[in-house]
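Journal club prep, notes for RB
We'll compare a predicted complex against what the paper describes. Inputs for the S-adenosylmethionine case:
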Amino acid sequence: MQAHTPVLLEEVLAGLNLKPAGRYCDATFGRGGHTAAILAQLAPEGRVIAIDRDPEAIRAAAVQFGAEPRLTVIRGSFERLDECVREAGLNGELDGVLLDLGVSSPQLDAAGRGFSFMQDGPLDMRMDNESGPTAAQWLARATEREITDTLFALGEERFARRIARAIVQTRSERALTRTADLAALVAGAVPTREPGKHPATRTFQALRMRVNDELEALAAALPQALGLLAAGGRLCVISFHSLEDRAVKRFIQRESQGDPVYAGLPDVPPHARPRLRRIGRAIRASDAEVARNPRARSAVLRVAERLAA
Ligand SMILES: C[S@@+](CC[C@H](N)C(=O)[O-])C[C@H]1O[C@@H](n2cnc3c(N)ncnc32)[C@H](O)[C@@H]1O
């Protein structure tokens, strides 16, 4: 089975402040690196709900954990976190929720999934590769403006306009269906090179985030995670993209402040009180971890604790 090295593992375990009989949700199972480490610290009464939208991750979970009685695996998107947790037979009161965003190594490394510009494959990029439009279908239908905006906003690609123009021009001649074709097209459209970076890096990242609605799913998941946590429960989010990290940081900031309308007043009604407490600052991987696992380079972990109502 293909492996995924869990990022910031010790930091996540400390951030979750694990209790042996606690109930945890790993909303991004991947290949179960974090789930396995959480289970290893739980007593027989502890529970983990693991979620992933990728059917291959769900199949890997069955092989890896078999009939582990403390683990319930749910196939679904954390965009509907409440529903997934309910499907697992729980109604909130969780002691911790983990979101380790982005793609797993098996997804990135399998040419057939279409995430990588390093290997030729179908231009797919769907984490749930059994539903929704592929990257090829999205590129075939999007307007030049939509492509430009996506590359600019999600890839911070300064040559977004040129690349979008090249895509629209090319697709009028032939369908863009292969990763290698798109990577070569982008390389030809971009006039300068960033050192150490393939010119298609930003385009592929932006397309992946668009095809999987990643920012939208995160924005939907954060308030649900907060609602599912018991007092003292921990929220841990690992981001790999500045826009994701900004969304997480702002969410924690907002929920740590309470409603400003009541600032300075003696009686603050429960709905207007802060619901989270930030735990420490943003945590990044150590040099030693990055040396072992270069994919940890851009990871940022933020931790917050649910306050009593
Ligand atoms: C970085 S990997 C997680 C790796 C995992 N922590 C491990 O140690 O093996 C991210 C995983 O989250 C999944 N994922 C991303 N967005 C998701 C969403 N909205 N709902 C459910 N799963 C999602 C991906 O399919 C991928 O398997």
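Talking point for the session: The first strand starts at residue 23 and ends at 26.
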